Structure formats: structure tokens, C-alpha cells
Amino acid sequence: MDTVQLQLTRRHFFSRTATGIGTAALSSLLNAAGGLPGMPHFAPKAKRVIYLFQSGGPSQIELFDYKPRLQDVAGQEMPESVRKGQRLTTMSASQSSLPLVPSRFSFSRHGQSGAWVSELLPYTAKIADRLTFIKSLHTEAINHDPAVTFLQTGAQIAGRPSIGAWLTYGLGSDTENLPAFVVMISPGGGGGGQPLYDRLWGSGFLPTRYQGVKFRSVGDPVLYLSDPDGFPKQNRRLYLDALSRLNQMKLDEQGDPEIATRIAQYEMAFRMQSSVPELTDLTGEPESTFQLYGPDARKPGTFAANCLLARRLAERGVRFIQLFHRDWDHHGRLPTDLPKRCKETDQPAAALIQDLEQRGMLDDTLVLWGGEFGRTVYCQGRLTKDDYGRDHHPRCFTMWMAGGGMRPGITFGATDEYSYNVEENPVHIHDLQATILHCLGIDHTRLTFQYQGRHFRLTDVHGAVVKPVLA
Description:
Layout (H helix, E strand, L loop, with lengths): L2 H14 L6 H8 L17 E7 L5 H4 L16 H4 L23 E4 L4 E4 L3 H5 L4 E8 L5 H10 L9 H9 L9 E6 L26 E3 L17 H22 L2 H24 L6 H7 L9 H13 L4 E6 L8 H25 L6 E6 L3 E6 L10 E4 L3 E7 L6 E3 L1 E2 L6 E3 L2 E2 H11 L9 E3 L2 E3 L15
Parallel strand pairs: 1-7, 1-8, 4-12, 4-15, 5-6, 5-7
Antiparallel strand pairs: 2-3, 4-11, 8-11, 9-10, 13-14, 16-17
């Protein structure tokens, strides 16, 4: 059944129903608890996803992709035999020289897996055997906005549904009192970073009920969640009932599914007036939890506090939880600023893995850590004894994954001795997206939506599950 036929069928149904289907029944219907018929396609390993997105492009050379040979060629010109004519950003293209620069930070091997991890990530190093490192990721975009959009939606041009929207559309929700898809943003101590637009967690051409809900760190976690002064809760209930009847009349008349979505979302908001304050009240957490996540865990809006909230959201059945941490875009001052971002994120990210594991939730929770692309082996700007920067690099970068469906304690893929080109087992962004869906029991070629005469999917027209990283 195509989109037009579906709309007409719904309109016929609503118009022929003498009294409508009622607010309560409609709310239940639109909660999409069961997702699409036939979903998941096969037994899933993961029930939910927590995506720790490091916005700006963390340097793989400083964090995970150990390249000792760079010490021998420091300051030398980038070899054309390595670059192979690949394009540069406008920020590097005008440089007269592209000097090679090794990491200033030391590496060592960790765990039984022997994973290489930088001294900047001591907490991550301790859980290396629980992680799956993919060092051969590559993307098509060389600038931030199209690269982040590509990771989130499978296309560089805005307008497609985000991965969280696709998952909630296909699988539905495991909670009646919270959104199925929640987003939180932490600014990074530098206070800068690339802008993050609401469309990055939007529903695109899917019904709007599948879009992510952004939680704030100041005031109400969700806008307009609190009732105005002098407006008691019983009045809110009466107000929503009256508004629902008006919307129902319009729905009966027009059969527009967006009106149905609006009715359901008003009901969700009413339930969230109780569920969200309970979620964000951390007074019941033991002191050991705050010690695990680190000193920032008590500070609303920090990455640490958001990691703790992510665990609490996962416990309450939220399907897709995405944390954005900004300010990883180190074109200069990398030796000074990169350690700060690592200090903000290292302990909380590792704590989240440990916390999920000790609660028996890691096996069915898929956790990801990474940015939109990597950084160049050559210095952007002027290379000095104490300072250097790195430009955007889409040709190769590293992410780690853990939990539901992943094979722990392995490193997959490899780059050349300059961390510039992929040498073994390349993983395209669509391959990553296909693998995420696979862990949740979804065949990425079968989760589609017809729009403007075409069946769209997250992985567009290609992509393959990376089977060697699966448990």
C-alpha cells in the first residue's frame, strides 16, 4: 500500500466512525508500542541504542590510531604518494606546506585484547576489553554539517529522517511515559563548537511523532512541561480533554495523520509532567554512582550528568538516546584543547559501560562513541614546538562500539602508517548504519518509507552489515 492509499484509507476510516475512536484509544494506537508489522525482522541482540556523539571530529591520531613511524618523519612534507591528489578543505588548500606532525601524547596497549589507547583516555583504556574498535571508517563529506547530517540521516543534504526516527518508526516504543527518542547536548568546556540543528534528530518525511525530543539542562528539561502559575493539574486535564475533542473533530473531517500525532503528543506531554521530574531527580542515586561517573555528574548539562541520565532513560525503556558533546574541532591549539575534551568525556563514557554492565543491561544496549570524521596527519596552520592543529579528514577515522550484538575486545580495520588512507577492511558510513540496525533485528534494506514516488531507507542504495564485529 503506497502513502496516498494509506492516507485515503485512514481518512475513510475516520470519516466513517460516528464518534471518532476516542482520545484514549487514539493515544494508545499512536503510541506505536509494537512498531511496524513484522518488525523486528529477526531476533535482536540490542533493545536500545546510546550514541555518544563527539561533535567536531576527534583526532584518531591522538586517541586510538597509534602511528609510531610519524616520530621519524615529523616536520617533513606530506608525501604525494600518500595524499594521492585527495582534496583538501579550503582551510588547508592555501598552505604552502603540509608538514607531518606526530601525536604529542603517548600510547600503550591495554587488556587481554592489547588495544592501543592514548594516555588521554585512561578510563576508556581500563574497559578496552569490553569495546569493539573500528579504525577503518570513512565518509564522503569533508565539512561538518554535511558530515554530521550524513551520519545521522544517511544523506549529506538535510531533509531525511534521522537514525533515531527510523528506529522508533520501525520498532516503536518500550515506554508510555517518555519519548522513544531523546537527545541531550553538552557544550564542552571551550564553549564553542559547530552548531547542532534540530533537524539532526528530526523525522524528515516520516510522521513527526518519530522525531527526537531534546532535553535541556536549564529550567524545564522539556519546554513548556510545567503548568503556568495558578493553573492546577486538574485544569490541565480538562483543557487537554477539550482540545483533544476539537482536534478529533478536525481529524474526523480530514483524516490528516499529523492531527492524530498532535493529539497523541499532547497526551505524552501530560504524562511527562510526572515521568520527567522523576527521571531527572538524582537524589536516589547512591554516592558510588557519582564517584563512578566523576565530579561533573552532579552538574546538569555536563557530559557526565547526561551519561547518567542516559542510563536512567535506558532503564525506563527509551529506544534511542543520543548525547552530543561539542567542541572537538581542533584546527589549532590541539595539544591544549584536546586533553580538556577528553577529561570531560573519558570517565563518564567508561562509567556508562560499567554501569550498564553491572546492572545487566549492556548485553541488550548498543553503545557507540565517535564523531563525524577524523583529522589530518599534517598540521593545519603554523607548526611550532608547542602547538599544532589538524584539519578535517574524511578518509579514515575511529569509533568504538560496545554492548548489544558487538564482539568485544577486538580491533577491526587498519590505516596506513600515516593514518591517512584505509588499508584493511574499509567501513563506509552506510555499513555502520546497516550494522547498527542489524543489532536491533532490522534488515536495513527492508526498513523503508515511500515518499515522492520512491522507497527511501537510512542506508540509501548501498551498505553492508560488518559481520566480523558482531558477537
